[in-house]
């Protein structure tokens, strides 16, 4: 198992792991330790294929989160989904960071690399937070974000019913109702834009503040907890800082990417 640094735009540089042999139990233990510290691992030139991916990811993943219903199953598995189709840019975000179903780890696999463009963008929220000045840090430590959401839940449709008040067993959720006519749960969720990392005393800026809402049909609105708009100048400042440390990742065939979703944000170039 060979290791080499990925990028100095990441706190700790991330790591590329190459291994032409089968991963041993000792390798798996070492990978877990590396991930706790680095937060991002690229597995390259390993013996992966669509049929054995879960055999590997199961060694690190206890339970798989439900993905967006708009994404198709891939390779005959309900645990492996397509990315969003199309050629449009997708701006930086932490996967479903607005949701009660936010995964700790996300996996990306490349069966065939793109002929050109379409790079996956990666931004280390730990590095990003370190670049914020006092005022910006203080603002996000003080203010939480309120998301108003609508989450489809198939199979509970009833034309003779309207809405029913609902309780979700997740901190920060409130004013929940089930809409029988639209088969969806509607609620508000409070979430801080900054999270604690796996490394003691390190915080990460990883959230859904930079992505366009029209690319996330589940989000009705996104405001501060007091329902006021997030100041435009603050969002602009974040984007300008993030731009300096965002990596354009060019995929190679059979690359497998393991990301700490509470620390990193990702997106896609057009």
Written overview of the protein:
This protein has 270 residues and is an alpha+beta fold. 18% of the residues lie in helices and 32% in strands. The chain contains five helices and 18 strands. The chain has helices at residues 25-38, 53-57, 125-131, 134-142, 232-245, and strands spanning 2-5, 15-18, 40-44, 73-74, 77-81, 90-93, 105-109, 120-124, 145-152, 163-166, 173-179, 184-191, 194-196, 203-205, 219-224, 247-249, 256-260, 264-268. The strands form five sheets. It has a five-stranded mixed beta sheet with strand order 1-2-3-17-7. The longest helix is centred in the N-terminal third of the chain and has 14 residues, at 25-38. The radius of gyration is 19 Å and the shape is globular. It starts with a strand and ends with a strand. The model has no long low-confidence stretch (mean pLDDT 92).
């Amino acid at each position: 198992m060979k290791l080499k640094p990925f990028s100095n735009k990441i706190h700790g540089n991330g790591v590329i792991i190459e291994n032409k042999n089968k991963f041993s139990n000792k390798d798996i233990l070492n990978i877990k330790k590396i991930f706790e510290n680095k937060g991002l691992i690229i597995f390259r030139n390993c013996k992966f294929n669509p049929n054995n991916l879960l055999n590997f990811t199961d060694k690190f993943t206890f339970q798989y989160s439900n993905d967006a219903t708009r994404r198709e199953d891939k390779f005959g598995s309900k645990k492996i989904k397509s990315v969003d189709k199309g050629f449009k840019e997708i701006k930086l975000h932490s996967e479903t960071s607005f949701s009660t179903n936010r995964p700790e780890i996300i996996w990306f696999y490349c069966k065939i690399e793109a002929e050109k463009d379409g790079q996956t963008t990666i931004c280390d929220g730990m590095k990003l937070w370190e670049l914020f000045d006092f005022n910006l840090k203080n603002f996000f430590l003080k203010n939480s974000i309120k998301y108003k959401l609508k989450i489809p839940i198939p199979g509970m449709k009833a034309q003779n019913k309207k809405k029913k008040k609902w309780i979700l067993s997740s901190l920060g959720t409130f004013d929940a109702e089930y809409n029988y006519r639209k088969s969806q749960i509607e609620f508000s969720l409070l979430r801080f834009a900054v999270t604690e990392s796996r490394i003691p005393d390190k915080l990460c800026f990883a959230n859904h503040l930079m992505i366009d809402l029209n690319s996330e049909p589940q989000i009705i609105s996104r405001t501060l907890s007091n329902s006021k708009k997030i100041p435009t100048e603050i969002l602009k400042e974040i984007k300008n800082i993030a731009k300096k440390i965002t990596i354009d990742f060019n995929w190679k065939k059979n690359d497998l990417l393991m990301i700490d979703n509470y620390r990193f944000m990702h997106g896609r170039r057009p």
